[in-house]
Design goal:
By secondary structure, the protein is an alpha/beta fold. The protein is built from ten helices and ten strands. A five-stranded mixed sheet has the order 3-2-1-4-5, sandwiched between helices. It has a five-stranded mixed sheet with strand order 8-7-6-9-10. The longest helix has 29 residues, at about 235-265. The protein is globular and about 60 Å long. About 45% of the residues are buried. It binds 5'-O-[(R)-(carboxyoxy)(hydroxy)phosphoryl]adenosine and zinc ion. 5'-O-[(R)-(carboxyoxy)(hydroxy)phosphoryl]adenosine (KG4) binds near residues 143, 168, 274, 275 and 308. 5'-O-[(R)-(carboxyoxy)(hydroxy)phosphoryl]adenosine binds near residues 10, 144, 183, 185 and 186.
Length: about 325
């Protein structure tokens, strides 16, 4: 089964061609980052217009890179929701038109389910075994922060979610406070490698509850920076603050993930979403899992391009959600 999938929920226009839900023949991602750096975030109206311009060239490139033509496509998959409405409409109308013209089925996929199945996509090793249920999935992105028990194809139980900001959103907002630009996650990770994570004891949100909270941490960083306004030009100060923030955000995620494992016996733990690209977070989860007697298998997306928004994950979810 060859799926042509489209993802346009936020600021990436992406089209992929995926075989059997796992083998990625192409995954073209046209990022609008350059358009949104000036504003320090995504302006919905601008994002929708950019999708319109990018869609046809990206579609053509995805087919060309995969080396297939329209006749080889068995189904069209597209992100249904959640996301910016103007951006979603561009993808959905394009996908519906393609499905109609080619007389192929249209499979609509929830964006978060797409992230959850991004770990099923293959990298170099095409023989890697399929994941096995039950799976505990932590999805951390700019818009979402959810801990879910995946007990079978498309069988989700929400165990915890954020009561305010998502982790990625906190990375983006703190990066802006530190004057580091957008998107914040990769820049904070880079600067944190040069800093001391123990420099500032920032708070861990809701330590006794299962849900996540990151707005208190963001406010703590804001107050800390206001108190130390005179040090903003000091590189070492910025690096230490970035490292301390990253550490507090990571510990909150790790704490709740490990707590969920006490009550839910699973075969695998998956980390997905834009923030899953963060190597500090991956290492901390690996370290904690290694302490368990029967440690579940840990997977994160095989390629960095499968962490942030991409169309290949939409094809994976379209395939495996239904068993
Ligand atoms: O999944 P995604 O592309 O979009 C949403 O569905 O929200 O995630 C984007 C988020 C941004 O907030 C970005 O700062 C964050 O993922 N991110 C990272 C890293 N790379 C991207 N956060 C921490 N460390 C990273 N290396
Ligand atoms: Zn996303």
């Amino acid at each position: 089964m060859l799926i042509l999938s489209l993802e346009t929920s936020c600021d990436e226009t992406s089209v992929a061609v995926v075989r059997g839900g796992r083998e990625v023949l192409s995954n073209v991602i046209a990022s609008q980052i350059a358009k949104h750096t000036e504003t320090g975030g995504v302006v919905p109206e601008v994002a929708a217009r950019e999708h319109i311009t990018a869609m046809i060239p990206v579609l053509r490139q995805a087919l060309a890179e995969a080396g297939v033509d329209w006749s080889a496509v068995d189904a069209i998959a597209v992100t249904k929701e959640p996301g910016l409405i103007g951006s979603l409409v561009v993808g959905r109308v394009t996908a519906a038109a393609l499905a109609f013209a080619l007389d192929k089925p249209l499979i609509e996929v929830n964006h978060i389910h797409g992230h959850m199945y991004s770990t099923w996509l293959l990298g170099e090793d095409l023989t890697e075994p399929l994941p096995e249920y039950p799976i505990l999935v932590l999805t951390v992105s700019g818009g979402h922060n959810e801990l879910v028990l995946l007990s079978g194809p498309g069988q989700f139980t929400l165990l915890a979610e954020t009561v305010d900001d998502a982790a990625g959103e906190a990375f983006d907002k703190v990066a802006r406070l530190l004057g580091l630009g957008y998107p914040g996650g990769p820049i904070i990770e880079k600067r944190a490698k040069l800093g001391n994570a123990k420099a500032v004891p920032f708070p861990i949100g809701l330590p006794r509850e299962n849900n996540f909270s990151f707005s208190g941490l963001k406010t703590a960083v804001l107050y800390y920076l206001q108190e130390n306004e005179d040090k903003m030009a000091d590189e070492a100060f910025i690096n230490d603050t970035a490292a301390s923030f990253q550490s507090a955000a990571t510990e909150a995620l790790v704490l709740k993930l490990m707590r969920a494992l006490e009550t839910h016996k699973v075969k695998e733990v998956h980390l997905t979403g834009g923030v899953s690209a963060n190597s500090f977070l991956r290492q901390r989860i690996e370290m904690e899992l290694a302490k368990l007697d029967e440690a579940p298998l840990f997977r994160h997306p095989k390629r960095m391009s499968y962490c942030t928004d991409n169309a290949a994950m939409i094809a994976a979810a379209a395939t495996f959600m239904r068993g």
